[in-house]
Every structure is written in C-alpha cells, then in structure tokens.
Amino acid sequence: MVKEKLEEIRQKAMASIEEAKDQESLNDVRVKVFGKKGEFTKVQKGMKDVAPEDRPKVGAMINEARAAIEERMNEAREKMQQRALDERLKRETIDVTLPAKKNKIGHRHPNTITLEEVEKIFIGMGFDVVEGPEIEKDYYNFTALNIPKGHPTRDEQDTFYINDNILLRTQTSPVQVRQMEAKKPPIRMIAPGRVFRSDEVDATHSPSFHQIEGMVIDKGITFADLKGTLEMFVHKLFGDDVKVKFRPHHFPFTEPSAEMDVSCFKCGGKGCRFCKGEGWIEILGCGMVHPKVLEMSGIDPNVYSGFAFGVGLERIALLKYEIDDMRLLYENDIRFLQQF
C-alpha cells in the first residue's frame, strides 16, 4: 500500500512540475507535496504504523521517491532561471553599431548673444560695463534724472512702486547717476540690465525687458562725439552699409535730445514690410546730458559735458535676427532658440 501511494504521489508531482510556468507555481507544487500538510508529509507521518521489520524497506522507498521528485524540481527551477536570464539579456542587448545618444547641452539665448556682441563693441571703444540694483530709489530713477514729482514722464512709464520711495527701475539710467556720484570724470560706461514697466504683453511690449544705457562724461564732449560713437556702434552691429539719421526729440535728462534711426538693412532703405515701407527703423534715444543732471550728481556743468543714450536689448535682437514678435524671446521654445 505504501509503495502504491508513493508512486501515485510521484506521478502527480512530476505532472505538476511539468505544468509549472514559473518559479512561483513551482513553489506551490513543493508546498503541496512537501509542506506540513503535504501528501508526502502524510506518508512520512504514517511510518509509525509500519511494522518495525518493514520500516527500513519503507523508509528507503520514501527517500527514493523524495529524491526523484526533488531532482526533477531542481532541474525545472534551473531551466526557469536560465530562461529568465536569457530573456533579460535579450532585452538588455546593446547594439554597438547604433549612434550614441547625444547629450543635450544648453544654448545661449538671442538676448545673451546680442548683449555680448554689444558689450564687445563698446568695450572696444573704451567703455566700462556697469551694473546697478533692479529695486531702485525714486530719487535715482526719476528725480536725479531731472524728472521731479508730478512730471508727466512718470505717468508714461507706469511704474511698479513698492512704497513711496522704492520702485522697480523703469530704466537703467539710475546706474549712470550712481556712477557720476561715485567717480570723477572722465566716465565712459554702458549699463545693461532688466527693467520693469506696467505694459500690456504684445508683439512689441512686455512688463519686463532689458535696456542698455550708455554715457560719456569728460571735458569738451560734443554732439559730434555722440554721433560718431553711435554710428560706429551701428556699423559694427549691423554692417558698414547701414546709414544713420538723427531726429530732434525730447528727454528730460538730455538737452538737446534726439531719436536715432538706421536705414532698413533688409531693403536698403527702399521700403519693405520689415520697415513698414518707410526705409528707416527707429533704434534708440540719445542726447547731451542735461546740465542740471550733471549738477545734481556733483559734476560742474561749466567744466564737463557729456552724452547719453539708451536702447532696448530686445529691440536690437528683434532687428538683428528679423524676429517679428517679442514674445518669441520668452516662450522658451527650444525649436525657436536653437536657430541662433
């Protein structure tokens, strides 16, 4: 009876091992056969009912059946492990003939490229590059630039005020005032930086943008020096064929003042969509530093004179790269930025 029972258990176990699909199901077979409540365990517990003289023979049959089942179970486990390894290696196979993955590195923004070019031009003409605070005092942003309280220019700039005396600067001209207070002439400087105005966002306006203000203070500085400097700047930036035109204008901190236009470098001044058919493109404002501004900064206007100018960095970038919408500069679309 024991021999027949062991043979039945052995056949069922072998069949279950063959049907096992993975190591989890194989483990279920082991528990079913050799577990505390397993069929093989029941046979072993029944050894106490076997006659003493038959126990060696029955014990040998039990060990033989157990060894056969365990051997088959180990073979099945090794095959499963090898199959799993082969599948994993197949998934992880590397084709060394494929091109390597390219590292995506950063790309300089059009504003950065343009600013570096502008700085290089002015440094070559002996200018210093100076920075100042973006959170500025009302005095430096307006009063020291000949724009007292109540002046209409303050309304035009729609300033972001933090309190009555502190604001987000609307221009980088305050850096010029700080330089005049801190240094004695001669002064040659440009002040690039971020400025803020409460403007609606559209193709040509943004509440946050960048300006480059420039200034020269020395003895005997005239409007001719201003014209020569800015013409050199334009020719270096846009090419020697570009023409320059100055139009009278008004700025509180310069007198006389002017707007500077350049001939359209797309149509050569003939008129096109880019210049709106006029042949000229306005690029910056400029003028001779107002004597009152010099005096408020501690510089004697009877001894020294100077000129100043201001240009929008984004405006230069838009013109240089023929971009028709300022918003493209801030949308961070990598497809757009990689063109520069």
Automatic annotation (TrEMBL):
Instruction: Enumerate the GO terms in the molecular function aspect.
Output: ATP binding; catalytic activity, acting on a protein; magnesium ion binding; phenylalanine-tRNA ligase activity; transferase activity; tRNA binding
Grouped into one coarse class, the protein's main location is cytoplasm
Record's catalysed reaction(s)? tRNA(Phe) + L-phenylalanine + ATP = L-phenylalanyl-tRNA(Phe) + AMP + diphosphate + H(+)
Stored SUPFAM superfamilies: Class II aaRS and biotin synthetases, tRNA-binding arm
Q: Which residues bind Mg(2+)?
A: 255
Identify the residues that the record assigns to the Aminoacyl-transfer RNA synthetases class-II family profile domain, covering every copy. 118-331
What does the record's cofactor remark say about binding?
Answer: Binds 2 magnesium ions per tetramer.
Against CDD domains, the record matches this protein to: PheRS_alpha_core (cd00496)
Which cofactors does the annotated protein need, by name?
A: Mg(2+)
UniProt-listed Enzyme Commission number(s): 6.1.1.20
Pfam families tied to this protein: Phe_tRNA-synt_N (PF02912), tRNA-synt_2d (PF01409)
Q: Which UniProt keywords apply?
A: Aminoacyl-tRNA synthetase, ATP-binding, Cytoplasm, Ligase, Magnesium, Metal-binding, Nucleotide-binding, Protein biosynthesis
Q: Which GO terms describe its biological process?
A: phenylalanyl-tRNA aminoacylation
GO cellular component annotations of the record: cytoplasm
**PROSITE patterns listed in its UniProt record:** AA_TRNA_LIGASE_II (PS50862)
Record localization: Cytoplasm
Q: Does the keyword Transport apply?
A: no
Q: Which domain of life does this protein belong to? A: Bacteria
- Quaternary structure per UniProt? Tetramer of two alpha and two beta subunits.
Recorded family membership: Belongs to the class-II aminoacyl-tRNA synthetase family. Phe-tRNA synthetase alpha subunit type 1 subfamily.
Know the name of this protein? Phenylalanine--tRNA ligase alpha subunit
Q: Which organism is it from?
A: Candidatus Weimeria bifida
